[in-house]
Amino acid sequence: MKKTRLVSLPNLKEAAKRNPEEKSLVEKVDSKPTSFLVSWGQGKTFCIRTYGCQANVRDSEILRGYLLALGMKEQEEFLGADLILFNTCAIRENAENHLYGELGRAKEAYEKNPETIIGVCGCVMQEEFAVKYILHHFPFVSLIFGTNNLTNFYSLLDDCLEHNENIVDVRSNSDLVPEGLPEGSQARESKVTAFVNIMYGCNKFCTYCIVPFTRGRERSRKAEDILAEVNCLKEQGYKQVTLLGQNVDAYGKDFGDDYAFASLLEKVAQTGIERVRFVTPYPSDFRVEVFDVMAKYKNIMPFLHLPIQSGSNSVLKRMNRRYTREQYLEIVHQLRERLPDVFLSTDIIVGFPNETDEEFEETLSLVREVRYDAAYTFIFSPRPGTPAYFMKDKTPMEVKHKRFDALKALIDEQATARANEFVGKDVEVLFEKVSEKDPSRISGYDPHNKLVHVKGDASLIGQIRKVHITESHTYSLLGELMDED
Ligand code: SAH
Ligand code: SF4
Ligand code: F3S
Q: Please, which pLDDT band fits residue 462 given cuts at 50, 70 and 90?
């Protein structure tokens, strides 16, 4: 077994530190590999497994860019690959457990070929106990790094190969905003839609959430760098950009500008790219100016994912969400006043410690009042290191599951009714990919983020076409392609 070099280990307490005086620094990344790495990579294969949210999807694209530049080829299956990377998510316990199951399978790959480089990165690696667990149970893992030192990937890999040792290098904090990351469209998941980070990290510290610990403090990219990326994507033929951040509407607060998101969104719309989306906004950071910009530009899609988490003020308080039910409803009202046609989705946590029947009823009543088009519902999962982890919880799991089912049934009922309203209408669909279930079908999204399938082939990918909707399901629509005018 190789020796392990511990360069740095994460620390959740360290990661929670926020110093408003610290300035974000642009880190100009030199993405050139050494000649040693290039000769190592030629003809070799890699496989990246990505878990979690869009932030991880984007990080994996950057890692893919690094590996492709070594002349390596990507493969779907990790068995047989020369390098396997697991980009992990720590948001709920089952995401983490899934990783350990996968690492068990990766052992097989290592036993077949002990030259295989197995790396683990992402949010789980920001937790000290998880790194220690991996070192103890999966000693064949050669590379452990975190969300704050992705851009060191080449030097980590170089060290690991040249010195034939396992490397652990996870930084708890970062003030850096990396620029100059691999740009080629071949590194991105899609040739049609692209994620663009506008900010990193989170300062909100909702009591249940691990993200402020795993992703560090909020730091925004400069508008000029974001716009350069959007323009470059447009030139490469991309039809849609989704601006990414944990609280996109807090964009620019670290430069001292509370209105920066509205002006950034406007500038992105003015690039003329066909479709602009953004995720995720935080309710109380919204400024109505953002809604005005959404109403003004047709290429900003009339869809908003606005997490509520709970409809009860007392639960919101225990969660440290910084708004009330009434304020949230007022935001929805102001939005719908300006964009009557907007579609809404949300995130809800059921079974937060000691949630009572009455508190849960308030969530149901809020859902009835808002009438969401979709909602992602989760049962509270205690995350070690977060305040909610230490809350004594008297609500039995059985009750939580019952509430979860009741909420899910209500949401599905509403979504089905809303989807049904599409039947007989014509919508514009941006086609993204051939359907996995039925290769004679092609799928895409309408401006409201409704998934639409039609009969068609891959030649439609990247096109925006009118579709006549003939059938609706809860979360998808079926339609027929209309003739081009
Ligand atoms: N920054 C975004 C979302 C981050 S995580 C926001 O604030 O809305 C995505 C979703 O996972 C959250 O909205 C929340 O609903 C859910 N989530 C986060 N931590 C969780 C936990 N410990 N247990 C269950 N669900 C959780
Ligand atoms: Fe987590 Fe809250 Fe930050 Fe969202 S806003 S990432 S839920 S701490
Ligand atoms: Fe998971 Fe990290 Fe995203 S914990 S949800 S991958 S920020």
A: very high
pTM (2 decimals)? 0.96
How confident is the model over 211-226, as a mean pLDDT? 95
Q: How far is the CA of 43 from the centre of ligand 3 (A)?
A: 32
CB distance 247 to ligand 2 below 6 Å: yes
What is the DSSP annotation of 363-414?
HHHHHHHH--SEEEEEE----TTSGGGGS---S-HHHHHHHHHHHHHHHHHH
202 lines ligand 2 (CB under 6 A): yes
How far is it, in rounded angstroms, from Cα 62 to Cα 66?
6
Q: Are 108 and 79 in contact (CB under 8 A)?
A: yes
Q: What is the dihedral of CA 190, 193, 195, 196, to 10 degrees?
A: 120
Tell me which residues have their CB closer than 6 angstroms to ligand 1: 91-92, 208-209, 211, 246, 280, 282, 307, 309, 347, 349, 378, 380-381, 383
Q: Pick the residue whose CA is nearest to atom 7 on ligand 3.
A: 211
CA distance 445 to 151: 33
Count of CB atoms situated within 10 Å of the CB of 20: 8
Determine if the peptide bond prior to 207 is cis (ω within 30°).
no
Q: Report how far ligand 2's centroid is from the alpha carbon of 141 (Å).
A: 30
